[in-house]
Amino acid sequence: FHDARCVYLILEYAPRGELYKELQKSHTLDEQHRATIMEELADALTYCHEKKVIHWDIKPENLLLGFKGEVKIADFSWSVHTPSLRRKTMCGTLDYLPPEMIERRTYNENVDLWCIGVLCYELLVGYPPFESLSHNETYRCILKVDLRFPPSLPLGAQDLVSKLLRYQPLERLPLAQIMEHPWVRAHSRRVLPPSVQMAS
């Protein structure tokens, strides 16, 4: 809201801060926490995409945690409201860039699916899947989808990540199927806010 002199933004309180800081403390999270984040994030992005908003920059620094650890998407500075959901601008964070953005192809909301895949890998392993010593090497790994899993990674989680990190955007697992993925269903402990529970 605003008055004659100022515009005021009232933001929802996220007392536990950035997911990034939590990752720095613990490096990786337990399976329950990781699966819960995937379900909450897929649900939140479903809402964004229904409103024709692409976030473009999903990463641990842009996810805030509520009192019970629930995920809240923040920093919509790269986001765009685009009725056609098609764009051609280069933006976002290097490790999270999808192939179509690097190649400057027209892209759509499926860039967010790629970012969820990168995030899921980082939550599981402790670093992004295409992290390299140079920008050019990172670009090369992304374009080849040079994806390697540590042997200790649960097979269900590997399946989810590999279905999201696909070179062809249309081959990426849709948001609704992320929430229904067997690994997410088996491990997510999502707790809906009281207002949502009463409505359903």
From TrEMBL:
<protein>
    <recommendedName>
        <fullName>non-specific serine/threonine protein kinase</fullName>
        <ecNumber>2.7.11.1</ecNumber>
    </recommendedName>
</protein>
<dbReference type="GO" id="GO:0005819">
    <property type="term" value="C:spindle"/>
</dbReference>
<dbReference type="InterPro" id="IPR030616">
    <property type="entry name" value="Aur-like"/>
</dbReference>
<dbReference type="InterPro" id="IPR011009">
    <property type="entry name" value="Kinase-like_dom_sf"/>
</dbReference>
<dbReference type="GO" id="GO:0005524">
    <property type="term" value="F:ATP binding"/>
</dbReference>
<dbReference type="GO" id="GO:0004674">
    <property type="term" value="F:protein serine/threonine kinase activity"/>
</dbReference>
<feature type="domain" description="Protein kinase">
    <location>
        <begin position="1"/>
        <end position="184"/>
    </location>
</feature>
<keyword id="KW-0498">Mitosis</keyword>
<dbReference type="InterPro" id="IPR008271">
    <property type="entry name" value="Ser/Thr_kinase_AS"/>
</dbReference>
<keyword id="KW-0418">Kinase</keyword>
<keyword id="KW-0723">Serine/threonine-protein kinase</keyword>
<dbReference type="InterPro" id="IPR000719">
    <property type="entry name" value="Prot_kinase_dom"/>
</dbReference>
<feature type="binding site">
    <location>
        <position position="75"/>
    </location>
    <ligand>
        <name>ATP</name>
    </ligand>
</feature>
<feature type="binding site">
    <location>
        <begin position="61"/>
        <end position="62"/>
    </location>
    <ligand>
        <name>ATP</name>
    </ligand>
</feature>
<keyword id="KW-0547">Nucleotide-binding</keyword>
<keyword id="KW-0131">Cell cycle</keyword>
<feature type="cross-link" description="Glycyl lysine isopeptide (Lys-Gly) (interchain with G-Cter in SUMO2)">
    <location>
        <position position="59"/>
    </location>
</feature>
<keyword id="KW-0132">Cell division</keyword>
<dbReference type="Pfam" id="PF00069">
    <property type="entry name" value="Pkinase"/>
</dbReference>
<feature type="binding site">
    <location>
        <begin position="12"/>
        <end position="14"/>
    </location>
    <ligand>
        <name>ATP</name>
    </ligand>
</feature>
<keyword id="KW-0067">ATP-binding</keyword>
<dbReference type="GO" id="GO:0051301">
    <property type="term" value="P:cell division"/>
</dbReference>
<keyword id="KW-0808">Transferase</keyword>
<feature type="active site" description="Proton acceptor">
    <location>
        <position position="57"/>
    </location>
</feature>
